[in-house]
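quick one, 260 residues, struct below
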Amino acid sequence: KTNANAMYSNALKQKNVLEEMQKWCLQNLGTKVNRRKIETLVTVHVHQRDIADELYRLVKINKIQDENDFDWLKQARFYWRPSASDDVSSDGATVVSVTDVDFNYQYEYLGAKERLVITPLTDKCYITLAQALGMYFGGAPAGPAGTGKTETTKDLGNTLGIFVVVTNCTDQMKYTDCAKIFKGLCQGGLWGCFDEFNRITLPVLSVVAQQVLAIQNAKKQGVELFQFPGDPQNISLQPVCAFFITMNPGYAGRQELPEN
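---
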């Protein structure tokens, strides 16, 4: 409200930062990991610049009034909340907000990861997956092979500082194999991505659906321990754990998912 040119100044600043980082790429950066780090910064910052330009354009035509407009809220926004707490410290927390869903940053050591180029479709996937996680559900990206379903899920995990365990499903998998994976993810507080989930046979899928339902109910109730149906073992639950499946519908040897 006080500075009418704030959005223009911000858009200009983002461009200048990107130009500076472009110059770094033309220099000898020494180690491979250093170059990967700078290239990742450039990849992410191209998106930052695009957001800044788009927000400035929308402010100019009075489409955005304040920070509660959806065009701002739909972005993955990082905040430092001094009054919040997380698993690391009770003295403040880094919170990542996507729309109206808040995630505590998880500080998992992932190394210098390369990041995906962020497109409008990536943004839509982030919004959809964030809404699903906010309602204690999982995500199920579906589409042809090689379109980036698994990578988008992993990239959202990178954004939130959480490790994503990818499992390639086959028709040889039994419900006991899936139970072991689920138990590990729940106790470790990790995300699981089950690739080509509809390769699993129908009888196994039915049991897996009940296992996932048990985990979702436990997360909704906020309990620390829960049990799978028909299994007396107590499983500790880290509420940050989540499950995603990817599917290639219409391919040979794939199952239709059961009703449950």
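The chain has a mean pLDDT of 91.
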